[in-house]
Amino acid sequence: MKKFLYILGGLILVIVIIAAIGGDPEEESVADDPTETEEGVLEDEIFEVGDSIDHENRILTVDSVERGWVSPNEFDTPSEGEAYVLVELTLQNESEEEVSFNPLHFELKDGGGVIQNYGAMVTGVDTLSSGGLAPGGEISGNLVFEVNENNLEELTLFYEPGFWGDDRVEVEL
User: Fold this and answer.
1) Do 98 and 56 fall within a single domain?
2) Do 13 and 62 lie in a common domain?
């Protein structure tokens, strides 16, 4: 009887291991889809400066980028070893409802892979404010990021306006 229980236990163990390793073939094909990244951004949805990007009826255009930007205020200087990056952008609301906008909807990834929130508070530049944008409304402004001066190449701007959304727009700068 003990021998039978050992054989039965071993058989159940083998079935569990095979089930865990095998998985569902349909799930594997979705996980291996090369167009979708873990962040919920499709690879073919990476944009460039000058593109008008429709994201949930909000049109984002990155108008220009200036690496190593210098504030006209002599007291606004980046920390040692850092440099400012100025991003000029325009947002348009093409929805039927008011939408919010906020500089905190933006992050910048530098060439070293560091992702940082908007946060460089400088004067002498028309900084993007926060508020509501009526249907058909448009606002332009600037964001200033402080980045390691050795990582100014291969910059990527992330735009994620939805609090709960997992979609975001990527713009290669």
Assistant:
1) yes
2) no
Helix (H, G, I), strand (E, B) or coil at 76: coil
pTM (whole model) above 0.90:
no
Whether the CB-CB separation of 106 and 144 falls below 8 Å is answered with no
Q: How far is CA 114 from the centre of its chain?
A: 12
Is residue 38 situated within a structural domain?
A: no
Strand partners, 141: 89
What are 170's two structure tokens? 């990527």
Mean pLDDT to the nearest integer, 104-133 = 91
CB 135 within 8 A of CB 95: yes
Q: Above 70 in pLDDT, residue 43?
A: no
Q: Which domain holds residue 55?
A: 44-172
For 123, phi then psi, to 5°, come to -105, 170
Give the N- to C-terminal CA distance of the chain in Å, as an integer.
72
Q: Are residues 166 and 118 in the same domain?
A: yes
- Please state, in angstroms and as integers, the Cα–Cα distance from residue 44 to each residue in 17, 37, 41, 136, 166, following that order: 38, 11, 8, 27, 17
Q: Are 74 and 144 found together in one domain?
A: yes
Mean pLDDT along residues 26-37: 36
